[in-house]
Amino acid sequence: MNKPIQRVSIAVILLIVALLANATYVQVFKADALRADPRNNRVLLDEYSRQRGAITAGGTVIAVSVPTDSRLKFLRTYPPGTASAFAPVTGYFSFQYGSSATEQYENSILNGNDDRLFGQRFIDMFSGRDPRGGNVVTTIDPKLQRVAYNSMRDGCEGGCRGAVVALQPNTGKILAMVSTPSYDPNKLASHDQAVRENSWTQWNQADDLNSPMLNRAINQLYPPGSTFKVVTTASALRDGVKPDVRLTASSRIQLPGTEVDLTNYGGQTCPASAGGSVSLVQAFKYSCNTAFVDLTTSKMRDPISTFSDTANRFGLDEKQPDTPLPVSRSTVGEIPDLAALGQASIGQRDVRVTPMENAMIAATVANGGVRMQPYLVDKLQAPDLRTLQTTQPSTINEPISSTEAATLTSMMIESERSTTGAGGPVSIASKTGTAEHSTSSGGETPYSWYIAFGPSANARIAVAVVVENGDPGAASTGGAVAAPIGRAVINALVGGASG
Prior knowledge:
The chain has 19 helices and 19 strands. The protein has helices spanning 3-29, 31-36, 41-47, 83-90, 101-105, 107-110, 118-127, 142-154, 185-189, 193-203, 216-219, 229-238, 280-286, 289-299, 303-313, 338-344, 355-366, 402-417, 478-494, and strands at 55-57, 60-67, 74-77, 93-94, 98-99, 135-138, 162-167, 174-180, 246-248, 252-254, 261-263, 277-279, 371-372, 377-381, 387-390, 395-397, 429-435, 447-454, 461-467. Helix 12 (229-238) runs parallel beside helix 14 (289-299), helix 13 (280-286) crosses helix 18 and helix 14 (289-299) packs antiparallel against helix 16. The model has no long low-confidence stretch (mean pLDDT 91). This is Penicillin-binding protein PbpA. InterPro entries: Beta-lactam/transpept, Beta-lactam/transpept-like, PBPA_dimer, PCN-bd_Tpept.
């Protein structure tokens, strides 16, 4: 064989080897990812030929497939009237736009392709029964979900923009996860292309602040404002600072190394001061910014390191555990000096958290300092309702000691007592926050926060509420806007409120 023919033969052989390697990679290693890709319409066509499993919450069906006469044999439906309330949990299942949320992240169970359903598929094939998907049982309490959604919808003129997350402190179960405004997944699941496309276009306008398809509960980051004083106080306690330490009650304080003054809300002197100072307990109760700057910049031995480490222990600046829905990473930001620390200590500067993270902070205090892994799926079932898998509660870490958690709880009880509208059938421990979020000269509506748990002893529920557009506008506060929503959710579980 002459050399030109030999070179061509080698090139052809290499091309065949490369083709075989690529085919093997696509068909073996990438098969699961391609099959799960929500844009894969061929897979969707196959899935629409069989009944998809149900998604349930506390015995209530919140997603189910029903037979139709169209070429797509089944239509995915969500509970009429309340589909928008559960949309952040279920997501959507659409022939044109794929899937999201639980519909996406538990797709292999719902569509019946999961390896754990192999025996069921085998039996169905030989019995002549149409193949079916398995079911997903969520941890969501449908009553709490509706109360949280309705409270957000009715809490502001035109509806509140924001989120509510409720957790069971000792297990990490997600009891409610609401994001408003929301959307109706039935329209994306429709077999009418015009309905799907019009809805998708309407809900995905780039300049729309409402962004109804954004899950604010787990994927939106906010400055936490004074709710972050829970973490700041925890860091001080870990550093050895006592609750009775004396701190400045002044209406303003200069940030170290700068000519910048930081002030209390409304420019007021911290209430209940004596001789120009207050204790840490009083500063927490009345949420005095200047006292917390004094605390972190002059009363702690190793302030920056301890503050950052404590925030990390609570989950900031680390990969957030999937629920199985992915949760955006919260962050405390860079803290190069004491001036930055002073700003971060009151939940401003670069501190950003999701409502899920803030709910976890409250739940950790409620659980005696133990941080639990949050989870949304209670169990997976076969089509015949056999249990395939049950989620077991798991501990992530212990950011603070039980003694420190007890001290924080007592401070949060006092904070609740001084908050607008306090009092009710349940003893609640809470912290409010009113967070600035832009560099404008004034007039913006701050983010209103409320994190809490109840009862304050042996807590059964921890909540985080954030509202972006409180009715008072620039005068919005966490106590006036977010607290009533959080209390309504807590009372719906432990206070006998109806949903």
